[in-house]
């Protein structure tokens, strides 16, 4: 089934444990995320933020309860989910091929112009233009050619090319200094205008740009509020 805007995410009575008998990582979590909302999820290391991201994207099945996108369970959508939800993981994966191919995974039809356009939007145009082979420069597997922040920008450029309505960024700024972090957050907010953004972090940097902040602790959302009022 083809899903249509406004792409509402609804999490209902969600429980999750990795292994039978283990304690619940997520426990009776309820959350509704409106289409276009910019939501920050905060929580300490180990609180279950990345686990929750995987559950939202349907990469893991709930132990109990549901995660729905427009009333469809994400865990049952299969590969279709990648048309709706894009994730940038804590350590973005780069492929051992050219920058061009790394960008166009999922959209091989992108024109030269469009590739440069997204690179500009994420602030990588100058860096790539200065490389001798430009878009054909090989990215080594570990992504060592690029800094942590540059890798996240490349991953963002890939997601912008794919043009999905919901984007989950899992600690995209973990390796960045505060100024670069603030700049990256501003870029993301601007570029993802009208799209849903779920920003997972344990920093307070940039939160004032978000519509809502929720805190994950002991498997539940302990607090929720307008970042301007925190
Ligand atoms: P961080 O801020 O450090 O990224 P997080 O909030 O993203 O932490 P998760 O990665 O979701 O935390 O992990 C939540 C809990 O689940 C942790 O106790 C972790 O050890 C456990 N966990 C994570 N992945 C697995 C797995 N594949 N199998 C078993 N336990 C796991
Ligand atoms: Mg994590």
UniProtKB/TrEMBL annotation:
Residues 11-230 form the ABC transporter domain. Signal peptide: none annotated. It is found in: Cell membrane. It comes from the Bacteria. This is Transport ATP-binding protein CydD. It comes from Liquorilactobacillus capillatus DSM 19910.
């Amino acid at each position: 089934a083809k899903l249509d805007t406004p792409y509402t995410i609804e999490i209902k009575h969600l429980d999750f444990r990795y292994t039978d008998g283990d304690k619940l990582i997520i426990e009776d979590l309820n959350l509704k995320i409106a289409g276009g909302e910019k939501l920050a999820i905060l929580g300490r290391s180990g609180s279950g933020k990345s686990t929750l991201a995987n559950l939202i994207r349907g990469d893991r099945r709930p132990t109990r309860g549901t995660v729905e996108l427009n009333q469809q369970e994400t865990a049952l959508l299969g590969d279709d989910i990648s048309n709706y939800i894009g994730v940038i993981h804590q350590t973005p994966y780069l492929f051992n091929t050219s920058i061009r191919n790394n960008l166009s995974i999922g959209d091989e039809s992108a024109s030269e112009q469009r590739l440069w356009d997204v690179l500009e939007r994420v602030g990588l145009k100058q860096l790539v233009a200065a490389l001798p082979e430009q878009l054909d420069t090989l990215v080594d597997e570990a992504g060592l050619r690029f800094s942590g922040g540059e890798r996240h920008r490349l991953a963002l450029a890939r997601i912008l090319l794919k043009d999905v309505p919901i984007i989950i960024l899992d600690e995209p700024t973990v390796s960045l200094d505060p100024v670069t972090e603030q700049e990256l957050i501003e870029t993301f907010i601007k570029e993802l205008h009208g799209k849903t953004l779920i920003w997972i972090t344990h920093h307070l940097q940039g939160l004032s740009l978000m519509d809502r902040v929720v805190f994950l602790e002991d498997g539940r959302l302990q607090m929720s509020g307008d970042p301007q009022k925190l």
